[in-house]
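quick one, 147 residues, struct below
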Amino acid sequence: MSLDSSRPQCTLTRTVGFRASHRYHRPEWSAEQNRTAFGALGDPPGHAHDYTCAVTVGGPVDPREGMVMDLGALDRILAEEVVRHLDGRHVNLELPEFAYGGTLPTCEALAAYLYRRIAPRLPTGVALVRVRLAEDPTLYADCTGVA
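---
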C-alpha cells in the first residue's frame, strides 16, 4: 500500500464465516506414512471446521465518503469469493487446487488461495493487506501477499 500524504491511510477489516471439510492425505504415501505425518487429520473422510476469514483492505480515506472502500462492495466480494465458494464443501473433493495429490488444504494454503481470489476483485486504489483464516480460536494463518 503506497502512502499518499495528502489523504489519511486506513485499513478496514471484515470477518465472515463458513463451514468446510478437508483431509490431509498424500495418495502416493502408504497408510502408515500418512498416519505418521498427519495423525487423525488424515483419517477418511476428513473433518470439518467452522472457519473464520478476516479480510483487511487498505488505502486512502475518500474525503467525501469517509471510507477506504464501500462496505457493501466488500461484503459482496466476500460472499462470492469466500462464503458461497467454500461453505458446505469438502475442499479436497470439490476444489481442484486441493485434490488428493495436490496442495494439502492447510490453513496457510487456504489463506493464500483466498488471497488470490479476493485481490483482483478490489477496486482501483484499494490494496488487500491481509487474509486471516482461522480454523478455530487457537489456529489461524495470515496471508499478506502471494507471488
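The mean pLDDT is 94.
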